[in-house]
Design goal:
There is one protein chain. This protein has helices at residues 4-13, 35-40, 43-60, 65-91, 144-166, 174-195, 199-209, and strands at residues 20-23, 32-34, 93-95, 102-106, 114-119, 124-126, 138-140, 224-226, 229-231. With 256 residues, it is of the alpha/beta class. Strand 4 (102-106) and strand 5 (114-119) form a beta hairpin. The radius of gyration is 18 Å and the shape is globular.
């Protein structure tokens, strides 16, 4: 029998074209890796970066350490943020985001970026009017502000483990790592709005999740309206610009 959070995941899966979102792992597991396996074995990040370095050398002729670190940092945190942001925006539900409850899959060939995210537990938090509020796996909170605070806290708890584990393998400071976590949470809500056809609602959710500079995050939501539409200024840097003949990203703090 389908559980409430599994049904929520099924609904958002239809929205995220090009990126697989699923509940649970396939029987053969394939290339899926549980996040706890990464944060518990930091050397896995080294393997991931080596795979990326090989691809970069093929594409650009070199693979600067800053670039491989920046890419992997953003890819990992975006997986966790996207799961939380999608369910918060579409269903007003917040899943468990413990490393043992989230898994992801990398592209099997070519650039080794994340191409799938999986939620592995039925536990979720919701609002008082949620029709599944009486489900054994549900925890009811008072209102949207409380639900947003819970998502922020759960994402921060996972990110803290990532910062400790991944941070031990790269030459990036804690401020940069937490800036990337801020970017992931802010972008997740925005992306969810874009996927559902109501970008402005996603922007409003981002403001609800990051209404101010709240530790350990490095800023409030940086989303802003421009003449050409919504955009944001990244807090972190993926270091794409250090690659040969590469330009800074449109949301790079160096140019935005």
């Amino acid at each position: 029998m389908t559980t409430p959070v599994a049904e929520s995941v099924r609904r958002v899966a239809a929205l995220s074209q090009g990126f697989e979102v699923r509940f649970g792992l396939p029987a053969d597991r394939g290339g899926w890796v549980v996040c706890s396996e990464f944060v518990g074995e930091p050397e896995r990040f080294d393997v991931w970066r080596k795979q990326l370095a090989e691809w970069m050398r093929e594409q650009y002729g070199e693979s600067p350490d800053r670039a491989t670190a920046g890419y992997v940092m953003s890819w990992y945190l975006n997986v966790v943020g996207m799961l939380g942001g999608l369910l918060f925006h579409t269903a007003r539900r917040v899943p468990s985001l413990r490393p043992s409850d989230v898994a992801f899959r990398l592209a099997p060939e070519g650039r080794p970026h994340a191409v799938g995210a999986a939620l592995l537990t039925d536990d979720f938090a919701c609002l008082p009017d949620d029709p599944a509020g009486n489900h054994p796996a549900a925890t009811v909170v008072a209102d949207e502000t409380a639900l947003a605070a819970l998502l922020r806290a759960r994402f921060a708890a996972h990110s803290a483990q990532f910062v400790g584990s991944f941070g031990s393998t790269v030459r990036l400071g804690r401020r940069m790592l937490w800036a990337a976590a801020t970017d992931a949470l802010d972008s997740a809500a925005w992306t969810a709005g874009q996927l559902t056809g109501d970008e402005t609602a996603g922007v409003m959710d981002a403001a609800l999740l990051l209404p101010a500079k709240l530790d350990p995050f490095t800023s409030a939501s940086t989303l802003k309206a421009t003449e050409t539409g919504w955009t944001r200024r990244r807090e972190s840097c993926c270091f794409h610009f250090v690659l040969p003949n590469a330009e800074a990203c449109a949301t790079c703090p160096r140019v935005c």
